[in-house]
Amino acid sequence: MNLIERLQLATPALHQARFRVERCGIYWTVYDGDAPIAVVVRDTGVGGALLEVLKFSPNAEGRAAALPPYAYHYSTRMGYGASFNWSVGAMFQSPDTDSVELREESDSRIVFLHTGEYLDGSKLACTLVISYDAAIGQYSYDMSWDIVSTRDALGEFSNVYHHALMHTDMALREYDYGCFVREGSGWLKYPITVLVTGLQREQLLEVPLALGGGAGHINRNGVVPMIIHRKANVPLFAGSCDTCFDLHQSAQVSAGVPAHIESRFVDMGPVVAAHPEELRLIAIEDMTGYPFHCGEVCDFSHTLHAAQPWSGGFWLPRDGAVISEEHAHSGTRSLKLTATTETPVSARAYGPALAFANHTEYEASVWVKLEGDEYVEASVELNAFLFTISNPQCIATAKLIGANDWTKLTVRVNSGTVDNGYLTLRVTGDGCAWFDEILVVEKESK
User: Fold this and answer.
1) H or E stretch covering 226
2) Contact between residue 145 and residue 231 where contact means Cβ atoms under 8 Å apart
3) Strand extents, DSSP E, 59-197
4) Using CA atoms, how far apart are residues 205 and 190, in angstroms rounded to an integer?
5) Smallest Cα–Cα separation from 99: which of 34, 153, 12, 28?
6) Kind and range of the H or E element at 6?
7) Are the C-beta atoms of 353 and 197 separated by less than 8 Å?
8) Sites in the chain below the pLDDT cut of 70
9) What structural domains does the chain harbor?
10) Cis omega (within 30 of 0) on the bond before 12?
């Protein structure tokens, strides 16, 4: 029994949809009556065509999921999305010429069509059909892709992102996060990210996806947004992003051979609720983090177990970032990053997300010690950032080049209209850097 069949046994419900669409600029908002259920966005050069789903079912409320050890967290507001596009060279790559059209609008069905062509001659046609499926008691978001590539390629045809985790109001955010790929009757757990607010970049790459199964996120509110793959004539794979923690769906296509994929974006939460024994969690009880809050210095002297109640963020060193006792500007420990000329990208460490007020200046200061040749470089980057097309990316960077003893780097950014920010620490070249006494403070509102 595949996922859609099992979902039909979970929560079927009758509902009479009354769909309509309102357009404002690059945004099409889909309503059921007066309730918004989806936003379709087209922005050439950024995202091609994106879908943000606001509700999977009529009158949907966040349903609590008993996911230890965070029983004290509360549900977040909904906000889940997927793209329907074709990207080979970059995430959210748009065709060089493309269009998004509203092809059908009725009380019972909405149809969007995204078509485009790339400079190499590759073409795509992607269709999104929004309706209500009484068999599963949810809105259905059915997507299909027809791709003709001029070269053999592994390309992304869709991306699943979870607004409540990475992209929205930090005051209402959930912090536990994982990826689950489901085939047949059992959940197969692949850890991408344990805490989206830690120093984590544990990647999931090219995990095969079987038809009838899919990959998705899980969050404490019990909603499991997932793309279920129903038909395909090409191999499908799932992979994680090491920057924004989204979940990417890719297909292996051959030059000149038409590829066709049909999938449904759906909430698998009812199946999880009905079969909790199939849910496998990433063990985080033994991990130790280092508290980090706006206005408080983090010197890596104080620890906090992930199983303990906490608010705000903490640094969770992973993926090459280590807590070192070799050097410290104060206390006995600092965060160490090591880079070599063989490293394909800079050694990076992402800090926990911080709640930002709008239109406010924030200043980050970090003490840095750098060892290596004359070209080694350490940088501190402060982001006021949301991964949505409607919000600009605001980044400020301070750098230290060549071997240096402890030096204070300071950087400022204005939050603009975004609600959160985070720090990125980097080392490039051939050498090591130690970071200590990390502080982010609010300076003034403008």
Assistant:
1) strand 225-232
2) no
3) 80-83, 97-105, 110-117, 123-133, 138-148, 153-162, 178-183, 186-190
4) 10
5) 28
6) helix 3-8
7) yes
8) 1, 43-48, 59-79, 89-92, 162-205, 217-222, 240-246, 276-289, 303-320, 342-346, 350-353, 385-394, 419-420, 444-446
9) 3-278 (2.70.98), 288-445 (2.60.120.260)
10) no
On whether the CB atoms of residues 237 and 213 are closer than 8 A, the answer is no
Hey, what are 308's tokens? 């303990």
User: Which residue in this structure is represented by tokens 């078509």?
Assistant: 115
The secondary structure of 358-391, three-state, reads CCEEEEEEEEEEEEECCCCEEEEEEEECCCCCCC
How far is 22 from 261, CA to CA, in rounded Å? 28
Largest CA distance in the chain: 68
Which residue type does 192 have? I
Q: CB neighbours (10 Å) of residue 346? A: 16
**pTM > 0.70: yes or no:** no
Separation in Å, CA 337 to CA 48, 322, 350, 408? 36, 7, 12, 17
Predicted local confidence at residue 205, as pLDDT: 60
Phi–psi pair at 424, nearest 5 degrees: -125, 130
pLDDT score at 315: 60
Residues 64/75, Cβ–Cβ less than 8 Å? yes
